[in-house]
Structure formats: C-alpha cells, structure tokens
Amino acid sequence: MNFFDLVFILSWAASAIAHGGVYTYSISGTLYQGNPWHIWDYGPFYGDGNSSGIPAGIPSIQRRWYFWPIYDIYSGNMTCNFDGAETNNSLHASVMAGSTIVAQYNALNFTLTTVDKTIWYHQYGPLLVYMAHCPGSSCEGFHGTGAVWFKIAQYGLTSEAPNLRGPWLQASMLTGENATGWPVSIPSGLRPGSYLIRHEVINLQSSKDYGPQFYIECAQLKVEGKGSMFPGAEYMASFPGVYNYSDPGLALAGLEISDGDLLPVYNTTIYPFPGPPVWDGEI
Ligand SMILES: [Cu+2]
Fold it and tell me: Tell me, which fold does domain 3-266 have in CATH?
C-alpha cells in the first residue's frame, strides 16, 4: 500500500473528503482542460472508479497537480503543487496582455470505490495569483525555482463582510453550483514571452495543528502584446520561501474562523495578505 492509499483510507474513515483545484481555464473564448493526476493510479481502490471527467495524460497547459492540500509551507510542492510536471506535448495558451483568464474550481469526492468530481467547498481565505517568466522559448523544463514569482492579483473579503468570517470572494468565485469563476487580468504592460501563471487558494478554515491549507496550480502561457514592462526585484518572491507560518495572514488559520464566539483576531475587515505587494504592470 502506498502513502496515498493510506491517506485516503484514513481520511475516508474520518469524514467525507473533498479537495481539489483548477479544472478549467477560459481564455479569450477558448476552454483549456486542467491536468489533475494520480487519480488513475489508485490500483484496486480507484483504478476503475474515476468519473471526474478528465482523461489521464491529455496534453494540457496546466502542470500536473494533486487534489490534496499542501500543508508544509517549506515544501517544494509550494511552487506548483505535486509534482508540477508538464504533460507530454504540453501546451501554452496564447493570451494578450490585458485580457482575462477565468479559472473554474472543482473538487474530488472519494469513497473506497469511486472518485467523483464535485463542487468546491472551501470559502474562508484569500485567492492570490502569481506569474513567473520562463527563461527559454517555452516553459518546458522550467520549474519555477528561485525568486522568480511576482504577484499580479489578490482577492480577500467581499465589500459587505463585517469581519474575517466573510463572505470572502473565494465563496462567490469558487464555491458551490453558482460559482462565477475566478477572473484575473494579465497586466496590460507585461512584456511578451512565456510565463507560468500560479493560482493559489488559501483555506484558513483549518485545524490550528495543521495550519492553513494551500491549493496551488500552475499553467503555461504565451503572453502577447506590445508591452515592455517587467517587475523589479522588490516584487520577486520564491516558493517555497516567501511565506512563513508566522505571517499574520497565515497565523490566524483555525476552525474558529467559522464557528463559535468571534475571536478578536477575526474581528477586522483588514486581511493582511501574505507575500510581496501586487505588481501593477498596467499601461
Ligand atoms: Cu479541501
């Protein structure tokens, strides 16, 4: 029995499981399928139970990802999930600087014999988007190592939220049947080239013992346009590296964000986003 089978069995015994990530990207009218993996490797338990709708190993713009949350903030999985590899014949999506990418989230529900695609459940915590320039003519072989990531957007509470119990934009954009999807504009002044885009959902409704849950997926883009801007070193961050458990926006993770008496730490509408400032590459 491998590690993942063991995790599934233990978790199944404890409660229903539903974790996930970006299933599709919509870019200028084209829908790109994501690349969740390892679902097809569960042998006697899950080998024939996959009904998640995405066949294994299709060429994709998305780096492979695994549905389980990342808890270890110092793990290499903080870069582009586990294992973050490109598919064979991986694709790059063409996107004009200034245009919008909409990511749609789903989760996977597990029993001992089935794997089913389901809706995204989490709704407490921020959404952050980073990009990294790929040094070659494509992103193949580039794994986002070092201080190469710059933040292009972050989303926290909705305007009507009275405190950190929300509602958060995660709920309206990602969660449930009526989720709008998560729109992100590529900075209009960004110079053309190959880039990884890294979507990150942080679930703050998590046991204090485990800390926040990170859901991270990367995809390959070919940015076009007439821009010539690129962020300076003060905007650059490493994953892993830039986050710590003591960061104010991460240290407040706990199940109490949703239940019981409102703790003082949640009684604010100012959420301290982790990571570097957002780079405003607009022209
Ligand atoms: Cu989850």
Answer: Coagulation Factor XIII; Chain A, domain 1 (2.70.50)
